[in-house]
Design brief:
135 residues; alpha+beta; 6-stranded antiparallel beta sheet; 28% strand
């Protein structure tokens, strides 16, 4: 899934989440520096997420079709809670969506030697990745 389609996917997920209070694309929020991403509001916390992508191994931008390849969805854990950190909230919302395109969701803060940066790495069944960075 490329970042543009992922942005649309996330907007749909967040709009349907009972714990979200708002969502808009970065472009709708006036951000012209980051081409893909969203602004998610949960309670009084607004988090901006920039999305960048990586094509599957060996794929070239020219001629790459963003065709969905499906498989077993990531196991859904607990639903997102208003008290979750932004990173935990988005990860929970994405796993709850049970998208058959997503093969894994990794939270940056839970990785060994994690930095202070919050974000997610999503790997898709076609081998592509999206990196969601909070800023």
């Amino acid at each position: 899934m490329r970042p543009q389609r992922f942005s649309d996917f996330v907007v749909g997920i967040v709009k349907n989440s009972p714990t979200a209070d708002g969502v808009r694309t970065l472009a709708e929020s006036g951000d012209t520096k980051h081409p893909f991403g969203v602004v998610v509001t949960v309670g009084t916390t607004e988090t901006r997420w920039q999305f960048t992508g990586q094509l599957p191994e060996g794929a070239k931008h020219e001629g790459f079709l963003d065709e969905p390849i499906t498989g077993t969805p990531v196991p859904a854990g607990e639903p997102p809670q208003k008290t979750d950190s932004p990173e935990a909230w988005l990860a929970a919302a994405l796993t709850q969506a049970a998208s058959p395109e997503i093969s894994s969701v990794e939270r940056w803060s839970t990785q060994p030697e994690a930095a202070a940066q919050q974000g997610l790495t999503l790997t898709f069944h076609n081998g592509a990745r999206v990196f969601a960075r909070a800023f």
